[in-house]
Amino acid sequence: MRSTNNYLNPEDFDRVIYAIPSLGIRKWMDDDVEMLFRILYWCALRPIEGIRLSKEDFDLESRKVYLGRTKTHVNDVAPIPTVFISELQSYLHTKESGRLFEGLTYNTFYLWLKRLGKILDIPSWVTLQKDTGEKTVGHIFRKSIGKDMLTGVHLTKDGKKFDVPIISKQLRHSKPSITVDSYLKSTIEAVLDQW
Predict the structure, then answer these.
(1) What is the value of pTM for the model shown?
(2) Is there a domain that residue 5 lies in?
């Protein structure tokens, strides 16, 4: 599927990762910014949930990341996919205790995405949210992993596409209808791409 204003395909995600050095960020290492993006995508986190993470929030043995208070829960937990464990473990091994992205704010993160959107012409970051009618800038990683699970970019352990209730739980939505109506929205172009 092509990237749209509510979806970032795997090829464009790779382009984003490779373009991080072009931002010239001085306060955080490029590897840290890259891992933040990967954590947001693989764990389907809201930006502020990822920004606040500490090394101690990750339980790699049980494949869970503890988020504390989130938009919808008092003590929220997100699953960590098996395919991401090794990369995440290698990264966390290099980190001291405490916050991974100390001092990072949502506003700074948002500016990175907008700059990357201009550099790479990423539709979700150059199209105004008032034009799309949905959160896409910071939420693009959540929306994209959901669509990638639905379309078969990522498959279950049995080699099948993920069912909507499972995707809904990955995104930590209370109802599958929220997942379908808000996150897996499609366009006629996406339908044409699939047929």
Answers:
(1) 0.91
(2) no
